[in-house]
């Protein structure tokens, strides 16, 4: 009887402590987007659940907020309404906008130990270009990417091309594209040579062409663009010529979202898209495929892309501390490896690639290393103050040239004048 009473008392005490601990748990709301196909949403939810299970003092409400555009809009709206998330993954290019709106705070205040500083220094420099400004760190790289070229090895073989060799230059992409463009007896194209999407956020893939031609679209301070640089004009003319002159790519605006499906169905032999689509392609391509760095003109090059973690203002010091600890955990090698293997996003820290998990994965699937190795030549993604307005202007200029309503030089000259009008106050 005494033993039973004692055990009941112990159980009651444990239950009481558990209830107290739960009541004292730090609550975090975490917005995250998914911009590509595959297992991204379920993987990030699984990682969050794993963290919460091992940290009973923290509760995280992971909210899938839609696309990147949806996520930043929801985060800004919630912040203005006095109910911001404590943490969100938002495009790295939205950093200046979030600063200008006074919605985020730097991570630096919560990274005081030598171990913290070592962790911060451990990210790839190319990814930090869109994460730091004014000597402060506003973003922590997470689901980061670069565009890469995917090719259908079977289509290459049928066209008499080496199935294991991708085009290394602009000229080779045209040369290969002509051999890969297939028409039926009626003269209708059944397979295009290459597909470079120009909807959604066309500036991103176009930026690959600009960088390869030696151009930088905007300065590091986010207050000056170079849209009418002759090298940018030349890059846009090349993109237009792929359809109009060389006839190796479908004319008009090419949809981002349907591009992987078009690749799977043999409508295009090559495509440019995010490395974040890598696992999706591996799981769904019904043929052998290859992955390569983007072809060069004056140099190799590609923009970085994808999302950063941001800390939103309005949280308590305790919440911010818990949020930073979660970010440190989810970007640590083993968790980062799980994320990369599930999605194809580039693990943002070299140490992840040194784990046995990633070494084994890369040995089995070498294509995963292409985007990582391309970081050596990568530049910051186009990002400015009033970023959505400025990139919207630039996207409109690209669309005008692609659809033939304006020539590239005129479209870009007008875009530069409009961007100058917006950004002058930030200089």
UniProtKB/TrEMBL annotation:
Subcellular location: Periplasm
Species in which this protein is naturally found: Roseibium aggregatum
Gene Ontology cellular-component annotations: periplasmic space
A Pfam family: SBP_bac_8
Family statement drawn from the similarity comment of this UniProt entry: Belongs to the bacterial solute-binding protein 1 family.
Keywords from the UniProt entry: Periplasm, Signal
Keyword Translocase annotated: no
Segment forming the signal sequence: 1-23
SUPFAM superfamilies listed in its UniProt record: Periplasmic binding protein-like II
Name used for this protein in its record: ABC transporter substrate-binding protein
Record has Signal as a keyword: yes
